[in-house]
Amino acid sequence: MPSTHPSSATAAFFDVDNTIIRGASAFHLAKSAYQRKFFGTRDILRFGLIQARYLLWGENKEQIDEVRNRALSLIAGRSVAEIATLGEEVWDAVLSLRIYPGTRRLLDEHIAAGHQVWLITATPVEIAQLIARRLGATGALGTIAEHKDGFYTGRLNGDLMHGQAKADAIVELSDSEDIDLDESYAYGDSLNDLPMMRVVGHPCPINPDLRLRRHAQEVGWPIREFRGRSQRVAGRGVRTASWAGAAWVLGLVLRAARRRLRGQR
Fold first, then answer.
1. Distance in angstroms (rounded) separating the CA atoms of residues 64 and 133
2. Which of 28, 145, 151, 243 has its CA 20 to 30 A from that of 125?
């Protein structure tokens, strides 16, 4: 239970994927974008290959850069309004149904205690802000894709909101919003969230992967587990979503192969 610190100077910072929402929000956005013909089968297969490499060898900076650059190239020329509409549809149809009830209760407790609540995520800031509005949070910090005259340029403003960038953004926000970081909280599921958790007085992993779980146990941080019983193996939630994505991509490959064979007859 969060402390009822009387000042709005206390804040709670929440990662999104596998902390608030089960699995990866980007996968559902990409799937919906593909279904609306934002990009073709070759592009979704490339994302599937990246997903497979993640499952086998884990996350690395080169992989993150590859995903970032390809995603930016795919939305170049698309309107901000179009992506916002896509985000609304994905929230209503998918993401709103994948919220961990336990995390939602924890977030609501912070709001009831008068704390600021911020989402901190690598998800595009427009989608992050949409989720924040729907949850009643104070706001969101996410990856900012550059746009001019209402259309995306295919470039970033700043860096991907990931790893150390999350911690830097929180420190900067604390200055502008007069937030007391020693009285504040941070929640995340991955070792990549460690930098942001280290800048607050009350770090708490939620559904942690194996590496974050080990670190939390070593330093004595509390751990919250909001996954269902069948998903309580460390890191299982992210990998379950990843295998679901891989299965969906495999289905696309098989359908494409069948169409090619029919065309050769």
1. 27
2. 243
CB contact at 8 A, 119 and 95: no
Counting beta carbons within 10 angstroms of the beta carbon of residue 115, is it exposed (0 to 12), middle (13 to 18) or buried (19 or more)? buried
Measured CA to CA, the distance from residue 126 to residue 193 in angstroms comes to: 21
Which of helix, strand or coil describes residue 189?
Answer: coil
The span from the CA of 131 to the CA of 29, in Å, is: 13
Specify the pLDDT at position 86.
84
Q: Please work out, in degrees rounded to the nearest 5, the angle formed at the alpha carbon of residue 101 by the alpha carbons of 97 and 106.
A: 135
Strand order, beta sheet including 11-14: 151-157, 139-148, 116-124, 11-14, 185-188, 202-205
Q: What is the pTM of this model?
A: 0.77
Is 108 an annotated catalytic residue?
no
- Cα(129)–Cα(119) distance, rounded to whole angstroms? 8
Residue 30 has what pLDDT? 73
Place of tokens 């020329």: 77
Q: How far, in Å, CA of 76 to CA of 204, rounded?
A: 37
Task: Name the region of 59 (left: φ>0; alpha: ψ -120 to 50; beta: rest).
Answer: beta
- Catalytic residue, chosen from 17, 189, 193, 209, is 17
Residue 179 near residue 173 (C-beta atoms within 8 A): yes
pLDDT of residue 80: 84
Question: Please, are residues 176 and 165 in contact by the beta-carbon 8 Å criterion?
Answer: no
For residue 30 the two structure tokens come to: 């990409």
Q: b/e per residue, 172-181, with b = 16+ CB within 10 A?
A: ebbeeeebeb
Per-residue pLDDT tens digits for 158-191: 778 889 999 999 999 999 999 999 999 999 998 8
